[in-house]
Design brief:
homodimer, 378 residues, Aspartate Aminotransferase, domain 2, Aspartate Aminotransferase, domain 1, 2 domains, 35% helix, globular
């Protein structure tokens, strides 16, 4: 394909920092670059504690351990999401209760949540689709009322915000008790594979560090708080290599530039496709008043599966790769029989009609727009 | 410290391959370098299928999922090992039955295993300490007799072998049903953090790939075996970034050189410390007839905890960092109360008296030997 769907962006300093990490004699996890990245995120977005992880999946698994999911506990989350949102909790024995998306956005329908809460519900996982905030204020209020944890799957949501009714603006990932970010190569800020857990509720801070370090108090040991470290809890090796953190650091240095560029591409799509979309019965993404746009993703909501297929094929014929996204998890081979049978029409709708357009730093967006405008059927 | 315990080795081509991976437009998992590394290991060591992972811990977790550990299942493993050997199985609900080490080596005592097997035993995990083979032939026979899985924790055991009674020589990690390797910076071949699952029993090959890819049949999809991929099983994101795999590939290109160098350092320690050790009642590592030496680790077995402390302090006073190793897991804060109370004297002995000497590519080994020979008390 002449125009791929995604192309990883290199700031130019990545390998310099990797070589520096090697020269410092430490390329295993939790080195200088890991700590620099974590501090950057804490300072910029107001997360009380950040821990880099090998993936967003790993960060979600840490969250599932931290909220002490036990077999039979119920976790509410959207069906229109990536498998890891669910797997992380299933690995701890949770029953997943899938919620529908809003009719106007793939984000979870906040109004559908209350009826899904039972005595076994332990947590709500929200996914900020395309980096656009779920309606967090009513969700946090509902969670508080029912004593539930809220975990933000902020995989796509770096550098995006939510505004509360009183005007307070908070970064996505800083609102729930815990949040998970992704630095997968398809994200705004990348390290190939990679992720981060943001801990906002202080009660989880100390244990998060232990679980991250294979269930040991190694971090306390390095701070001189204990004189030898040992096995004190369950855990895994959630730390990424310093090679990964050094790469990520070079990206963070260029965050503003990357974000400016991605938002400009998004705006170009949005403005220049408006009349074409209207003429074809295609909807463009909307940003609610309480949300911001982080330029993560630009998608079209086609009027039918057939139209979406035609759009994808039209672009492909011109060397441009556009791709659909999630398949409703409640209908998957793995979960179909476990699902309670409720119909989730909006999730199924986005499964069929949503298509994502290329969006990356070096994209020649005008070319994609020009080709798309030639699409007139069916 | 003038002489650290470990220093990561850079072949010089690591960042070249990382840049190449970025230029190819793919730095997420399972790209060209991941596949090159996996093929290298399969071809060189006869593993039927290899999958790179984010850590050896992750590979052990994959093994625990693959053998379908369920709550209450028992897994036998040495107490003298890293926490991840146990955690990976505990996360799936296993009860760990800790075995003692041999009196002459930290490896699991093969003669102690039969008495630990119950109707709930599902697997035996062996750890090839210092890259030296456990006595695999009787262990495999016992496992076959009781229908148990054998998982090799080969974290330290790359490029090492076991010879069967009939003269057949097999690479460590190719003998059990599954095996886990580490590429942590302290290992022979490194990527900072990193690991690999080796699948030897064909029954696990297909599912291993699914679990590796978040429980999806994505790998089948990319091979064109299915027309779209979906959620079909539990799983996690066990794939490392291509950045990590590209780094590892540069190391593999230099495997022979690295191994020659490490074995030479080991031999220098072994030969030149022999009479000094004898005079001080210190034992040097021995390689059984059925095993090989991969130059991973050189350790001293002191005659007492006091002597070990004195050796460590003597070296430290000369700017050389030597470090003890595991603390018996059955006595850890986490597991002490869960342990069945059996005394594991050899494991506790190695906890107290084993000390590891620096061993890395650029080490000036003669200097460490010279300083050690000055040690004469207590």
């Amino acid at each position: 394909m002449k125009t791929p769907f995604n192309k990883p962006y290199l700031s130019g300093r990545e390998t310099f920092y990797i070589e520096d990490a090697v020269k410092r004699g430490k390329i295993s996890g939790n080195g200088v670059y890991t700590q620099k990245c974590q501090k950057f995120f804490e300072d910029k977005y107001g997360f009380s504690k950040c821990l880099l992880t090998t993936s967003c999946t790993a960060a979600l698994e840490m969250a599932a351990i931290l909220v002490e999911i036990e077999p039979g506990d119920e976790v509410i989350m959207p069906s229109y999401t990536f498998v890891s949102t669910a797997n992380a909790f299933i690995l701890r024995g949770a029953k997943i209760v899938f919620a529908d998306s809003r009719s106007d956005h793939p984000n979870i329908d906040e109004n559908s949540l209350e009826s899904l809460i039972t005595a076994r519900t332990k947590a709500i996982v929200v996914v900020h689709y395309a980096g656009v905030a779920c309606h967090m204020e009513p969700i946090m209020a509902l969670a508080k009322q029912h004593d539930l944890f809220v975990i933000e799957d902020a995989a796509q949501a770096i550098d995006s915000y939510y505004t509360f009714a009183d005007g307070t603006k908070k970064a996505l990932g800083s609102i729930g008790h815990l949040a998970a970010f992704s630095f997968h190569e398809t994200k705004n800020i990348i390290s190939g594979e990679g992720g981060m857990l943001a801990v906002n509720d202080e009660q989880f801070a100390k244990r998060a560090e232990i679980i991250w370090e294979k269930g040991t108090n190694r971090s306390s040991f390095f701070r001189g708080e204990v004189d030898k470290y040992g096995w004190i809890d369950i855990g895994s090796s959630f730390l990424p290599s310093e090679i990964v953190a050094a790469f990520l650091w070079a990206q963070l240095e260029n965050l503003e530039d990357i974000q400016r560029k991605r938002r400009a591409i998004w705006e170009a799509y949005h403005q220049q496709l408006a009349s074409w979309a209207l003429a074809n019965g295609i909807k463009l993404p909307q940003i609610p008043n309480y949300a911001t746009n982080n330029g993560h993703m630009f998608y079209l909501i086609c009027k039918s599966l057939e139209q979406r297929t035609a759009v994808i094929n039209h672009l492909k014929a011109h060397g441009i790769l556009a791709v659909f996204h999630y398949l409703s998890l409640h209908k998957s081979l793995f979960y179909n029989e476990r699902h309670d049978g409720r119909s989730l029409v909006n999730s199924d709708h986005f499964t069929d009609v949503l298509v994502r357009l290329p969006l990356y730093y070096e994209l020649a967006v005008e070319e994609v727009i020009r080709v798309l405008r030639e699409f007139k059927k069916p």
